[in-house]
Amino acid sequence: MHIASTPKALEYKRMATKHDTETLLERQALKPPPLYQVALLNDDYTPMEFVVAIIQEYFNKDRETATQIMLSVHRYGKGVCGVFSKDIASTKVEFVLTHARKAGHPLQCVMEEV
Questions:
Q1: How many independent structural domains does the chain possess?
Q2: Residue 51: which domain range?
Q3: Phi/psi at 63 (nearest 5 deg)?
């Protein structure tokens, strides 16, 4: 009889595999998913009021906060609207770009890993 196929050897193998899998899952569970910041980029054509409206609508910011982000876009070339998981960030970028294009504005929206 081959040692690897004895009931005792198979039991040890199952235990080792189960333990290894649990350890791997534990290690993976400890690492948080990467986060992405969504930012608007400045251009010379998109009206400031439109940028404020976009920030309020897609990032749920009040008017004052949206205005501060818009001023950051205007003064520094970029304004961070929020930090999200990859899927949510990607969806927000897509929605903002689609809305801007439909309105005829060249507003750019990007996501960057934090």
A1: 2
A2: 35-113
A3: -60, -40
